[in-house]
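To whoever picks this up:

The nightly regression suite flagged PTS cellbiose transporter subunit IIC as changed. Nothing in the input moved, so I suspect the structure step. Input below, exactly as stored in the fixture:
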Amino acid sequence: MRLAGAFKGSILSAAVLAALTGIPGAPTSLGGAPVAVAEEAPDHGRQMIVRADDVGASKIYNEGVFEAVDNGVVTWVDIMLDSPGTIDALIKLKERPWISVGWHAHMWGSPVLPAAEVPSLVVPEGEEYAGRFREDIQTAPDVKFEEALAELRAQMELSIQYLGHPPTFGSPGLGMPMQGPVEPTPFLRAKQQVIDEYHLIDGWYNNMGKVEAEPKWADKKAWYTNMLPSVKDFYQTDSVADWEENYSPVNYYTEDRGGMLKLMDEGWTPIRAFHPGYLDLWTYRRMERGDRTMSRRFSLIRLLDLEGLTSNELKDWIRENRIALVSPKDLLFGRNAYQDHLKAVGSDLYIERDD
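Regenerated output under the current build:
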């Protein structure tokens, strides 16, 4: 079910909505229970979406992200709107309108609003990490709904200020319709309200066969794939040798560990998320605070993802299999912005298709 108390009012004009999607009359409501996906495949050849996560973590991290965007195969980025590199990333994304933008709402950074205005959301003064979001912000019952709502609206307005619009997509798994009898927390209710107010799109893909797309998007046949086949074991280690021997974003595709070719031949557009970027102290240690398990899990993987997503080996596989790289907005709204960009820059990843 959707989160309780979600506000359905519109605060964006039709013109802004059209700008977000590239078409007039963009959708403003995404309600409805999941149903079975459409049986008939869309009329297109093989195509896939590649997402980069944690964008905006820091300026240094962003340098790697945008190397993967400009010289790699990334078609969609998920941005954190509360982090040291947020504004830098928004400015760079405004210069790259062929890239789709989602909201990566982990809340690992600090509020856009002054901490004094949202005290229930942050670590108190005098404690380590004072002024940053509390680590239990998503689940804590004592978070004040009004403070969460004000902060999340401020994050959307920050995006509008620098990017020209809010993110188009809600972060998968964060702010999505909740399953089961668990009562939504104040923060999650606020997040769902902001997703509704700013018309962020969620529920548009099948999540690893476990959660189906909402009915209005089912015929688009988008499928989010699992990252686990890219590793023997999800190593929680700082060992370069362990990661290099057991993790490969390239082999995930070239060995078809996620079954992507089969999905594409059945008419699906598979989605796979990675974390390409350069490491600095913030990204490696401070972003995750004291959670060394998470820091180890998402440290060297970022460099390996950057190497893999810009590699000639992966690009060769894409060309040999006649796969068109597309963005989510291209898929959902019948655009061809990403492929048009490839054509404009003379990329040999451009795929010419019959209309």
